[in-house]
Amino acid sequence: MSTHLDHRQAGYKLLRHHGLEIGAFHQPAQLSSRCTVEYCDAHSREEMVKFFPELRLPAESLVKVDYICDLDIQGLSIFQPAQFDFVILNHVIEHVANPIKIVAELFRITKPKGHVVISAPDKNFTFDKSRALTTYEHLLKEYQENITTVTDVHYIDFLWAVQPEAFQESQVEFQRKLNAVKTRREHVHVWDSETFDNFLIQCLKLCQIAAKRVFLSRGEQNQFEYFSVWKKL
Hints:
A seven-stranded mixed beta sheet has the order 3-2-1-4-5-7-6. It is of the alpha/beta class and 233 residues long. It folds into two domains: 6-144 and 187-232, Rossmann fold, CATH 3.40.50; 151-184. The protein has nine helices and seven strands. It is globular and about 55 Å long.
């Protein structure tokens, strides 16, 4: 049956051997029998069910998390350099405090000639549509200052675009909604396909990472996201 993620399959076919998927939640990558995979997330699947009750998902429908890791605080420091043949990060980078640091970490734990799969929602096809694009200068500043915590300013921007009625409510109710957004780690940074591609290219140059993009599907094509596969050289 055709789904809105079918465009990813050609990219996944490039993967081999043993890898790591971060933030798979209830939609892990559909990989071939040539691949084995472990899963990493900020919380256990039981905790995730509590954080996202509106999805009405039983814990068993989420991937079993092998590693608990807070990307903002720890990065991927629990993993060794060149530990995996591939690493997958789908729709996670928009939630983190320091995206450039995470891109560097993805390639650090990937073997030479291995692959990094990274995607982000294209704002033109999500609830972020009315939000301003995050500039590379903003992200570079967060990287240079080694930011490890998302400020309330980011989450207030999310509320303004997605739940503007919150600003008409009492201070107590507003704070409750802000706290809920923070707990769920809603979208912090915003890209379209063009700016996310530019962001990745500038990241690799800044961090002196040799990599080649070997697969790409843009929001204009799939009506959803920027999805890419990169080969570490």
